[in-house]
Design a protein that fits this description.
mainly alpha; 465 residues
């Protein structure tokens, strides 16, 4: 168990670090204007990917017949079709996006970036199938090797182009390597098999995930739009930097726990050990969210100061508040994993609707004189409400008890309140010890997680071939 979680976590951490290093390197090499142009490519890709995500990885790990070649072949056909449609949409939107961002000289680049979803549609799904049996090496290689290749390509591309094209072609390098590595580490022959009923079943599973992705795209970029429009680009830069530093660990946690717990929960579904495992999954997400808050509260400010100096010092007071906001997102991630194990894909979508519904409130408040902290507080309220809805849906639909979570949630609430109280004031050793003591208390309040950890075993689907 320790080896499996360590392998996934190290792979996700290394991948995130490499991506951040690539971004920092390119931002230092090219001009600010060129980096701004390059950033629009990432926005375009994120828009297409998040608004069309159908949860293929989750389907492969959750479905009882996810190990069958027919199921895998059908999903791979669906992936190719989705990639082709996304490529056509991105190509068609190239002109409007170049016009909207007032960069007509980059029209060809927006058209070329349409290759990314098309090529990514040919990824071999064997890495997801193998994750069902908790064999994670192929997934780690696909997460790790392409960013390494992309990072190594930056300097040669800079000497070749010297402008926004550096990021453009490094993205293409990463995507091409991702598909290649997925095939190199596959155990099965790549199969494309059209099966109408299976594709329809996949769509029924995935459409709530697609809606949820679209809602999250609106959240991530809606808040930036509100701040940039009403409070100015400097405040937007500070908010974006603080957000990226807190969002990255939250995403690493979510990707790691999804890959680790979903195969176990899916395999245990309908058995006596399912409820304790589900409760341990919910508890570990609460604990990891609290770990993130404490880590940001104690080290976020010094890290930001040492890496970027005084230029972004005004973002330091925002870090802990945004970490708490992301912690609620991590908490809700536990609900999403447990819900996905039972193919209940609508839960996260309903939770995200609450989050998005508060964006107009944030806009109205800021338009009437509110500041960036107002936006963060409204976002925290939305995330907390989304978590509460996701938790209640998961517990009631699966017949799980709330009682084992009450004490951990209360302890987590105290920890986050103390962390926010000290935000931006500088953390002395007494406050640091207090936060660490509260973190230990959160862990001690989780008997199901303690029992799970003492077993030192983690079992996914037990299939052959």
């Amino acid at each position: 168990m320790i080896r499996s979680i360590g392998l996934i976590l190290s792979g996700n951490l290394a991948s995130a670090a490499l991506m951040m290093l690539r971004t920092l390197l390119i931002s230092r090499l090219i001009s600010l204007e060129d980096f701004g142009i390059a950033s629009t490519f990432l926005l375009a890709l994120a828009m297409i990917e998040m608004m069309s995500a159908l949860g293929f990885q989750q389907q492969m790990m959750q479905a009882k017949d996810g190990n069958e070649p027919a199921f895998q072949g059908a999903l791979q056909v669906f992936s190719v079709v989705r990639g082709a449609i996304n490529a056509l949409l991105l190509f068609a939107l190239a002109g409007p996006m170049a016009w909207f961002f007032d960069i007509p000289q980059a029209l060809w680049a927006f058209q070329l970036i349409a290759l990314v979803p098309f090529v990514s549609g040919f990824v071999h799904f064997d890495l997801h199938r193998l994750s069902r049996r908790m064999h994670y090496l192929p997934s780690v290689m696909v997460a790790l090797l392409p960013p390494v290749g992309s990072l190594m390509s930056v300097v040669p591309l800079y000497h070749l182009f010297g402008d926004y094209r550096v990021l453009l072609f490094s993205i293409l390098v990463q995507m091409g390597l991702g598909v290649l590595v997925s095939h190199l580490f596959a155990q099965r022959r790549y199969l494309l098999r059209f099966d109408g009923p299976l594709i329809l079943r996949s769509l029924q599973f995935g459409w709530p995930i697609m809606i949820s992705g679209a809602l999250m795209f609106l959240v991530f970029n809606g808040e930036r739009a509100i701040i940039g429009r009403a409070l100015g680009l400097e405040v937007l830069a500070l908010f974006s930097m603080a957000l990226s530093l807190t969002l990255t660990p939250a995403l690493v946690i979510s990707r790691t726990t999804m890959s680790f717990f979903l195969p176990q929960l899916s395999a245990a579904r309908g058995r006596a050990g399912y409820a304790p495992l589900a409760m341990a999954t919910l508890q570990v997400h609460i604990l990891l969210g609290c770990v993130m808050v404490v880590g940001v509260a104690l080290m976020g400010g010094p890290f930001l100061q040492s890496v970027l100096g005084d230029k972004y010092a005004a973002a330091i007071p925002l870090l802990t508040w945004l970490a708490v906001l992301q912690a609620f997102r991590v908490f809700e991630g536990g609900c999403a994993v447990v819900a996905l194990a039972a193919a209940q894909t609508k839960n996260e979508m309903l939770a995200n609707i609450v989050r998005v519904s508060l964006l107009p409130v944030a806009w109205l408040v800021v338009a009437r004189g509110g500041d960036v902290m107002t936006v963060i507080w409204i976002g925290m309220l939305g995330e907390a409400a989304g978590f509460a809805i996701g938790l209640m849906l998961t517990l009631t639909r699966q017949g799980l008890a709330l009682r084992p979570l009450l004490v951990p949630l209360c302890a987590a609430g105290v920890l986050m309140a103390v962390a926010c109280w000290t935000a931006g004031q500088g953390v002395d050793w007494q406050v640091g010890l207090g936060l660490l003591a509260l973190l230990v208390a959160v862990g001690f309040a989780m008997p199901d997680l303690q029992i799970y950890l003492r077993k030192r075993t983690a079992v996914g689907h037990l299939e052959e071939g």
